[in-house]
Write a structure and sequence with these properties.
Blueprint lengths: L2 H57 L6 H12 L7 E6 L5 E4 L21 E7 L2 E11 L4 E9 L1 H36 L1 H14 L14 H57 L4 H33 L5 E4 H11 L1 H6 L3 E6 L3 E4 L1 H18 L5 E8 L5 E7 L21 H6 L6 H11 L2 E8 L3 E8 L1
Parallel strand pairs: 7-9
Antiparallel strand pairs: 1-2, 1-5, 3-4, 4-5, 6-8, 9-10, 10-12, 11-12
């Protein structure tokens, strides 16, 4: 069952329950008030009739016949013009003295029992399709006591109640139809934003992750739509991130396959060449030299791959180190390589202390400087700097004056096996794992790498410690 249908059905059911309860108490209360008025009227009329009859009986001093008594009372009853009013007078043995009733009373006459002087009792009873009130008391005479009963037809009170219930049922039917129609349109209007949400979820399920819901409302549905849009943004970002990861993994596999294929092809080719040719010392040594170099390359590749794996698994012990001292140590280590290209490594900055694993951070900085050396021309400069940026974060910066990189390539340089200049990397016996290892070392130190580069103007890489 749809939500709008539940709203419609539950609203109509709740209305009918409340309307019926309210109408029941209203009609019954009105009926009870009318009945109470009739009882009071009956008691009042009974008193008037009782006093009139008593005055007649007490005025007769001599014994009279029952026929004469009946005649006198009948003439007296002509004063009561209400056709719904009746008088009954019985003696102490319940023998009729006078009665103008036009119907028979069946059953036990409880109102005639245990009558007490100066007290009245009344009862309401149904006779046929009519309802009557009986008010009875003792009528004291000179010679005997009589049972005086005033009877009045109050059927109209109950008929009015039936008419009110019949009117209520008709009214309820009409109102229910109007209410059902109104609630149909209202529930459809209220649940329209939910339908939009459902349509959006279907489109997102179909792969349209840019789908958003536009609902301008401050109620719970508006809040739900805002949260839904935020969730959709998060899902879209995660999907893009997953797609990026998948693409990176695919490039990793492609590049790894390529990196393994190249040395293996050379090794297999030279091995087949040596097996199929006559022994020649010069050719043998040359082939073995190629096989050895390509084998070393495979060994280096496996070591780099192990480094990547270990950086993600090991817990390293960090200590506070003076970074400037580490930079000077690195300059000393790289001095032969720098001299080979006549490159000047300029180190400057304050001696800030940073929580690091010394060997790892040296490995990171050496990798960055090594890349800068490869990218730099002879007799150029590389700048190695330590400072605190505007956000009060400590930064190590490596800047060269080399060939630079295209800005479109920058977001890929930290991926394993990615090489901006494959020919230059291959010439240097590289596999494109250096910067990916640098990125992993940075993660170990809760730091991030930022790179800025421009073709033929150089590259600047920053290690920013958080």
């Amino acid at each position: 069952m749809k939500f709008w249908q539940k709203i419609l059905i539950y609203s109509v059911i709740l209305f009918l329950i409340m309307f019926n309860i309210g109408a029941y108490f209203l009609i019954e209360n009105s009926h009870n008030l009318s009945l109470k008025r009739e009882v009071n009227r009956g008691l009042s009329d009974h008193l008037n009739a009782y006093l009139g009859v008593k005055s007649i009986i007490t005025s007769i001093k001599e014994p009279v016949s029952e026929e004469f008594m009946y005649y006198i009372l009948k003439n007296y009853m002509k004063n009561f013009k209400d056709e719904k009013t009746y008088i009954e007078i019985l003696d102490s043995n319940n023998n009729e003295i006078f009665s103008n009733l036009n119907f028979n009373i069946k059953g036990n006459r409880v109102e005639l029992k245990n009558l007490i002087s100066n007290e009245r009792s009344y009862i309401i009873r149904d006779i046929g399709d009519k309802t009557y009130i009986f008010v009875t008391n003792l009528l004291e005479g000179d010679r005997e006591n009589f049972k005086f009963t005033y009877i009045r037809d109050i059927s109209y009170v109950y008929e009015e109640r039936k008419k009110e219930y019949a009117f209520f049922i008709r009214l309820e039917f009409i109102i229910s139809i109007i209410l059902a129609g109104g609630m149909y349109f209202l529930s459809k209007y209220i649940t329209r934003p939910i339908d939009k949400l459902i349509d959006s979820t279907k489109r997102i399920k179909e792969g349209k992750f840019s789908e958003r819901v536009c609902i301008n409302s401050n109620d719970e549905i508006g809040i739900l739509s805002d949260n839904f849009n935020e969730m959709a943004y998060a899902i879209e970002d995660k999907i893009h991130e997953l797609e990026k990861t998948v693409n990176q993994k695919q490039r990793f596999i492609d590049n790894l396959t390529h990196e393994l294929k190249t040395p293996l092809t050379s090794i297999i080719g030279y091995a087949e060449f040596l097996m199929t040719t006559k022994y020649n010392e010069e050719a043998f040594l040359l082939g073995m030299s190629y096989i050895l170099n390509e084998g070393k390359r495979l060994k280096k590749l496996s070591e780099k791959m192990m480094d990547l794996i270990l950086f993600k698994k090991e817990n390293f012990i960090m200590k506070k180190e003076n970074i400037k001292n580490i930079l000077l140590e690195i300059k000393e280590v790289l001095s032969p390589k720098l001299k080979s290209k006549n490159i000047d490594l300029v180190v400057f900055g304050n001696g800030y202390e940073v929580l690091v694993e010394k060997d790892l951070i040296k490995n990171l900085i050496i990798n960055l400087i090594d890349n800068a050396i490869k990218a730099s021309s002879d007799s150029s400069r590389i700048y190695l700097k330590m400072y605190v940026n505007e956000e009060s974060k400590k930064v190590i910066e490596v800047k060269d004056e080399g060939i630079g990189m295209d800005k479109q390539e920058l977001h890929k340089v930290f991926e394993p096996f990615y090489m901006v200049d494959k020919s230059r990397t291959r010439a240097n016996n590289g596999a494109g794992l250096g910067l990916s290892i640098c990125a992993e070392i940075a993660k170990v130190h809760n730091a991030k790498l930022e790179i800025d580069s421009e073709i033929n103007k150089g590259t600047c890489i920053k290690i920013i410690f958080n």
